[in-house]
Design brief:
- With 379 residues, this protein is α/β, with parallel strands linked by helices.
- The chain folds into two domains: 42-127 and 237-378, D-Maltodextrin-Binding Protein, domain 2, CATH 3.40.190.10; 130-233, Periplasmic binding protein-like II (D-Maltodextrin-Binding Protein, domain 2), CATH 3.40.190.
- The chain is 42% helix and 14% strand.
- The strands form three sheets. The chain has a five-stranded mixed β-sheet.
- Helix 10 crosses helix 14 (346-357).
Length: 379
Amino acid sequence: MRDTRTSRWRLVLALLLSFALFAVACGDDSEDEGAGDGPSSDELTPISLQLQWFTQGQFCGYYAGIEQGYYADRGLDLTIIEGGVDIVPQTVVANGDADYAVSFTVRGLASRENDADLTQIAQVFQRSGTRQVSWADSGLNSPADWEGKKIGNWGFGNEFELLAAIRQAGLDPETDVELVQQQFDMVAITNRDIDAAMATIYNEYAQMLETVNPETGELIQPEELHVLDYNDLGVAMLQDALWADTNRLEEEEFRAQTVDFLAASMEGWIYCRDNLEEGVQIVLDNAPILGEGHQRWMINEVNNLIWPSPDGVGILDPDLYQQTIDVAVEFEILAGQPDEEATRSDLMEEALAQLEEKGLDVTGADYAPIDVEPTPGGE
């Protein structure tokens, strides 16, 4: 009996060993077959992108690019670095602590004037997202009505469109209005502590509509508000753009990497344009702080700032660029006109050629935002 049991165990062990060897062999074959689908993780080139704010729908395209494998397909392993109130994205790039940054156009230009070696490589937002919001019953229907009123703004370079609008209306920002430092929320205007509040159409305005009106007990309705759009006044300034180190762009390897980075980033934005709900989920997976309803509103409105892009996504509109500079020079944010090397379009044009070869729509000529219903608290 003892010999029989021993023989059986030897047989079982032999079978298990044979199975294990077969499984290993199959695993090796599987890995070999998958190797042709794209580079393995240890073959990817690590790169980094510094955001100008915390993770939210405003940056959907970059997160989608990672989730959908667009960067990996081009041999890149992108790390996204969150921003915040005290983060100056373009300075992070200038200091060599990130490869690329998202920053407002004029902020990057101002840093360049202060000897930072920075070049704008793509203009993602085609329009300004800044608004000034007041209660409809206040009668503040234009900047001319702001005389003697408390007008909120965030500072930190966000106030230049506001100042330009005040001057355009024939008012002196220093004496004719009371400029009030505003928090990055809408509490002051909701409580009527100020007469008009600064907001982005994709974030703070949504916060307003997600808030209960203390006078009605219901969510605030759009018709209860007056929203001033700086794009309509001709003083809007271009915002989210991509920046890189000027000198590194002269290096052949970094230049080629940058074209691939731009192609993957814009493919991510195309994905967020064509797959809104999937984009919402991607952002929620990376940043569950803001609610689903708020992120849906944000991505929808950010898409509306990007699309349509008549000359191709990421390509700078020369007229709006000049308008941005004119406002910046007027308020001495910039000392003068930027030099020609401050921006370049050749990298973005090459990236767009990649996307067009894939049959992707790079202009979004037929894009129209959907109607997103505000939800209580953005949930």
